[in-house]
Amino acid sequence: SENTLCPSPGAMSPALAKEIPQEQGEGGSRRSGWGLLVTAGVGGTLVALYAVATPFVTPALRKVCLPFVPATAAQIQNVLKMLENRSGSLVDIGSGDGRIVIAAAKKGFQAVGYELNPWLVWYSRYRAWRDGVHQNTKFYISDLWKVSFSHYRNVVVFGVPQMMPQLEKKLEGELECNARIIACRFPFPCWIPDHTTGEGIDTVWAYDLKHSRRCETKSLEMTPETDS
């Protein structure tokens, strides 16, 4: 007879039914295992990148939000120009990755950097060693508001507008009259710069503290009165 039974579309032989689930199970297990490995690898990479990158982009100072922005080559050259014919110790406030400190050390300064971000400080020390100026440089992990800068003759500041008024008062109260303060990116609000160079974000302002009214007043107070 030609009336044979044809299996319905959803039907299959018992043997085939046994083989297919087994193959699907093994393939699914392999795919699941590879998926876990890939997920773990990507997750681990992201965590590692976050751990390394976060300290470089988070604020370096606690009182004022000051993210790390590397100094440009033009800024470094403008700072060095403002240091011509200067000598003595130098400090970079918020030294970042140490570019200014290292450049100043190469010009013969005993240069120091203060930076709150430990990753940047360690990286700065490595760069100073790599460039052969580690003996003329020092880097400290410290909050600038907790440090006295009274024994420095040259001060470099990479700040933001929010911190400049308070920092201006701090430096004016601590530094000697022969000090020069070099501000990058943003000027101080009250001081009148003695020298300016650069354009745009590369502008640098230099202030000689001896020209400030406070230093003139201190000099008058130190001068003994004489009878006429």
Rg over C-alpha atoms, rounded to the nearest angstrom: 32 Å
Which regions contain 5 or more consecutive residues with pLDDT less than 50?
A: 1-11, 46-65, 217-228
Strand order of the largest sheet: 3-2-1-4-5-7-6
Measured by DSSP, the beta-strand proportion falls in: 5-15%
Mean pLDDT: 77
The CATH superfamily label of the domain at 73-211 reads Vaccinia Virus protein VP39
The number of distinct helices, counting runs of at least 4 residues, comes to 6
- Describe the global form: globular
Order of helices and strands: HHEHEHEEHEEEH
The CATH topology label of the domain at 73-211 is Rossmann fold
Structural class: alpha/beta
User: Care to count the β-strands?
Assistant: 7
CATH hierarchy: architecture of the domain at 73-211: 3-Layer(aba) Sandwich
Residues in helices, as a percent range = 40-55%
Instruction: Report the end-to-end length measured between terminal Cα atoms.
Output: 147 Å
The top-level CATH class of the domain at 73-211 is: Alpha Beta
Give the biggest beta sheet.
7 strands, mixed
Subcellular location: Mitochondrion membrane
GO biological process, one term: methylation
Main location: mitochondrion
GO cellular component, one term: mitochondrial membrane
